[in-house]
Write a structure and sequence with these properties.
Blueprint (H helix, E strand, L loop, with lengths): L7 H22 L5 H17 L14 E4 L6 H10 L5 H5 L29 H20 L7 E6 H5 L1 H13 L4 E7 L2 E2 L2 E2 L8 H8 L2 E7 L3 H11 L7 E6 L23 H10 L10 H7 L2 H15 L4 H7 L7 H13 L5 E2 H15 L3 E5 L3 H4 L17 E3 L4 H14 L3 E7 L3 H14 L4 E5 L17 H5 L6 E3 L4 H13 L5 E5 L3 E2 L8 H5 L4 E4 L6 E5 L3 H14 L4 E5 L3 H5 L3 H7 L6 E4 L8 H4 L6 E4 L10 H7 L4 H11 L1
Parallel strand pairs: 1-2, 2-3, 3-7, 6-7, 9-10, 9-11, 11-12, 12-14, 13-14, 17-18, 17-19, 19-20
Antiparallel strand pairs: 4-5, 8-15, 16-18
Helix pairs in contact: 1-2, 1-3, 1-11, 2-3, 2-9, 5-7, 5-17, 7-17, 14-15, 14-20, 15-20, 17-18, 22-27
Length: 660
């Protein structure tokens, strides 16, 4: 079946329908940003009417083209496109723009609106996500052939271009030769503060050419034939990502506000709405769209046809690809975990948890080819590689990415890879540099994506590098991100279980905060795996404990040493390891009280800020205390620093005695 190409008149009507839906929705909500949808309407129509391969009836069809709106404040653009092309997004949903529990939130949110590929709004991250999607496609295409063969299209504006994360991601896109990535730059010269010449004078075309991109334009972004021709050229590119620079007029169609900062937000209101209708010849009432606009963008029949043809090819595809695209782990996954657990239990010497995690990765990585690792120029320190790691190259080979010193870009790209599906990304840097990457980590949690963060050098144990590299507030602050599981494992077994937990988790990201310094050997058996998975558990018990010592990471060994010293003084102490507070908090009240009895005093020990621990030590009937660090660190050998800040058996014993 071949669908007749829509007429120029129908395409023009569809573009104006997008404009007026944006104006009407923003007016009804009394908030929002109609300037971008009004300015990019023709670009969107050119792409969606002819080039975008998608099926509105199945937004999750694996081989669909991905469409990302990096300048997500213009959310009425994708909402209009989804509605007009046949997705499950009604006009009533459009009317509820920006309202509670609607399918049309203020910024696009993956999982809320059918057809939205990623949550955008923090500018620059959408283009970085798109780079990740294009990389995942290239890796899967190389491994499984043309059964995975699609493009990633992304819209971005001046704000995205200014954000540093776009530099990081777009530079890598050129290195990787992501020729199926096509970006449309909305070059309208306006941001919220006015004409961008006052603060943004980059030669964007030369910047992207320097990255290794093929640059097209500037072209007239309001000419559908010009945009169509540019896309045709972009699709012929065989070795480079493509940037199409589109000169546009923000708020196009608004007679008095177009081309100004006023058009960005809610200035096209009141009398200006009717003036806009008259200016573009739009004779329809609010939220009324003529059939011609629907016919121009309707993709239900063509989408079903494209997917049906692909399904015939997919039927004989590699079963591994089918498993990976479904997000499932292999049938022998339990055996893989057992191998990692058994190896961890057998460890009989002190190792840093970063090394313990790498030992676990030696079991997981080769057995799970969907795991795509990487590091921000710290592979040898983060230990994110394994013996079968191969560097990713421009031909799509490999399973380990050298991201360079680009922490933010790395994590945002990993989000895009996870959103694409078929791969499980894990990335590494020093924990202190999570500050650079934090918003991408937050976005992974918001989007409920399976991404693993392997963040090492987790405390003042970094030593001589000093306070610039010693994270003290980071673990506590990262624990505050909803949906992020933060692990600070104490030894080899906890590290292996943490890795497994992150691999298995489908509804959000996982972070491993790992030590550079060696940690204590803890007596283990297989029964401890299930306890560790509860996030907090009794690691060393006595007959009649008089208090509870709670610790994480390298401080668990310190707590065990203090337990012995207290016993020598006739004081029995229970030691609780709490590698993941989020999982512990999710346990039943009965379990939590069994581990941390209300009637026992508690001392929490962690080489970081104390704030998050008071709810555990003050949660019962007795006073508690926290041994931590509420200042920045110092530059000195790790052992010297631990003694200086009171992380010694003697100090733990002294504090414990004040509670008994």
């Amino acid at each position: 079946m071949t669908t007749p190409a829509p007429s120029a008149s129908a395409l023009h009507t569809a573009a104006n329908a997008i404009r007026m839906l944006a104006v009407d929705a923003v007016a009804a909500a009394k908030s929002g940003h109609q300037g971008m949808p009004m300015g990019m309407a023709e670009i969107a129509v050119a792409l969606w009417s002819k080039h975008l391969r998608h099926n509105p009836a199945n937004p999750h069809w694996p081989n669909r083209d991905r469409f990302v709106v990096s300048n997500g404040h213009g959310s009425m653009l994708p909402y209009s496109l989804l509605h007009l092309s046949g997705y499950d997004l009604s006009m009533d949903d459009i009317r509820k723009f920006r309202q509670l529990h609607s399918k049309t939130p203020g910024h696009p949110e993956v999982g809320i609106t059918a057809g939205i590929e990623t949550t955008t709004g923090p500018l620059g991250q959408g283009i970085a996500n798109a780079v990740g999607m294009a990389l995942a496609e290239k890796l899967l295409n190389k491994r499984f052939g043309d059964v995975i063969d699609h493009r990633t299209y992304v819209l971005l504006g001046d704000g995205c271009m200014m954000e540093g994360v776009s530099h990081e991601a777009c530079s890598l896109a050129g290195v990787w030769g992501l020729n199926k990535l096509v970006a449309f730059y909305d070059d309208n010269g306006i941001s919220i503060d006015g004409e961008v010449q006052g603060w943004f004078r980059d030669n964007t075309a030369e910047r992207f050419r320097a990255y290794g991109w093929h640059v097209i334009g500037p072209i007239d972004g309001h000419s559908i034939p010009a945009v169509d021709a540019a896309i045709e050229t972009a699709k012929k590119e065989t070795s480079k990502p493509v940037l199409i620079i589109c000169k546009t007029d923000i708020g196009h169609g608004s007679p008095n506000k177009h081309g100004t900062a006023d058009a960005h937000g809610t200035a096209v209101m009141g009398d200006e709405i009717e003036a806009t209708r008259k200016n573009i010849g739009w004779a329809h009432a609010p939220f009324v769209v003529p059939a011609e606009a629907y016919e121009a963008l309707d993709a239900k029949a063509s989408g079903a046809e494209i997917e049906a043809a692909w399904n015939k090819v997919f039927a004989s595809a590699d079963p591994e690809l089918k498993r990976r695209l479904a997000g499932e782990l292999p049938a022998n996954y339990a055996d893989i975990v057992k191998s990692a657990v058994d190896a961890a239990i057998a460890v009989d010497k002190e190792v840093a948890t970063r090394k313990a995690a790498q030992n676990a990765l030696e079991k997981f990585g080769p057995a799970l080819p969907e795991m795509i690792g990487g590091s921000a120029d710290l592979t040898g320190s983060n230990l994110t590689n394994h013996k079968q790691s191969v560097a990713v190259d421009a031909q799509g080979n490999g399973n380990h990415v050298s991201y360079g010193v680009r922490e933010f870009g790395m994590c945002a790209i990993a989000n895009g890879m996870a959103l694409h599906g078929g791969v499980i990304p894990y990335v590494g840097t020093f924990l202190v540099f999570s500050d650079y990457a934090r918003n991408a980590v937050r976005m992974a949690a918001l989007m409920k994506q399976r991404v693993l963060y392997i963040f090492t050098h987790d405390s003042i144990g970094v030593g001589e590098d000093g306070p610039t590299h010693q994270p003290v507030e980071h673990v506590a602050s990262l624990r505050l991100i909803p949906g992020l599981n933060v692990w600070r494992p104490a030894d080899s077994l906890e590290s292996a279980v943490a890795y497994a937990s992150g691999i298995e988790r489908k509804d959000g990201p996982t972070m491993l905060c790992l030590s550079r310094q060696n940690t204590a050997v803890i007596a283990r058996d297989a029964s401890h795996e299930a306890l560790i998975r509860r996030g907090g558990y009794i690691v060393a018990e006595t007959l009649k404990p008089a208090l509870v010592l709670i610790a994480t990471g390298s401080e668990v060994g310190l707590a065990l040493g203090a337990q012995k010293a207290l016993a020598a003084d006739g004081i029995e102490a229970r030691v609780v390891s709490m590698p993941c507070t989020q999982l512990f908090d999710a346990q039943s009240a009965e379990y939590r009280e069994a581990v941390l009895p209300p009637e026992l005093p508690k001392l929490a020990i962690e080489a970081g800020v104390t704030g998050g621990w008071w709810k555990y030590v003050h949660g019962g009937q007795t006073p508690g205390a926290v041994l931590g660090i509420d200042t920045f660190g110092e530059s000195a050998p790790a052992g010297v620093l631990m003694k200086h800040f009171g992380f010694t058996v003697e100090n733990v014993v002294a504090k414990a005695k004040t509670l008994v």
